[in-house]
Amino acid sequence: MRLPQLRLTVRRMMGVVAIAGLLCYAAILLDRHIDRGRRAILHSSLSRYHRELAEFDIAQATSERRSADRYRSSLETTTPAIESRESRAVAKIADQLIKESELMSARYRTDSEGHSRLARYHDVLNHKYEWAPRWPWLLVSPDPPTPNGPPPDPIVGRHHFRW
To answer: Rounded CA gap, 86 and 66, in Å?
Structure first.
């Protein structure tokens, strides 16, 4: 039994090339769909993360502000008539604690603002990439530049008091 011979005509070759091109384009569209879906999930989780950090920083700033107020009120309630070496040392330590608490409160407020900016940035990108997987054949505009987040912390989680 003889196998039938397949003729390679120009028309058939053009059909094969067209089908191969469609398969390649389908692979590109699938890749874009998956990539944009992953980016939407990434920016959604980063937005949530920065919102939680901003809320934490606001709570910490409030706590530090309350601590400074407590130190200040305790310093004011001590009797100024007693002028001993110990009371001057306590007053000096309380002043230092007030300054440190105010500095930390300002630092937490600055960090909160930076995290809020980053959360808004990731919200915009999340919105952009949420619709993009539905229409992978459309181009997506370039991402805007990343805003400045909170400044890097040289001393993470440590307070340095000079007594």
So the answer is: 25
| Conformational region of residue 43, where left means phi above 0, alpha means psi within -120 to 50, and beta covers everything else | alpha
Q: Are 133 and 50 in contact (CB under 8 A)?
A: no
For 8, list phi and psi in degrees, rounded to 5.
-100, 100
Rounded distance between C-alpha atoms, residue 130 and residue 139, angstroms: 14
Residues constituting the chain: 163
Per-residue pLDDT tens digits for 11-67? 999 999 999 999 999 999 999 999 999 999 999 999 999 999 999 989 888 888 888
Tell me the pTM.
Answer: 0.70
4 band by pLDDT with thresholds 50, 70 and 90 = confident
> What residue segments make up the domains of the chain, in order of their start?
14-134
State the sign of the Cα–Cα–Cα–Cα dihedral 18, 21, 27, 33: negative
Write the secondary structure of 17-72 as one string of H (helix), E (strand) and C (coil): HHHHHHHHHHHHHHHHHHHHHHHHHHHHHHHHHHHHHHHHHHHHHHHHHHHHHHHH
* CA 42 to mean position of chain CA atoms: 10
pLDDT tens readout for residues 114-126: 899 999 999 999 9
| Residues sharing a CB contact under 8 Å with residue 109, sequence separation 6 or more, in sequence order | 57, 58, 61
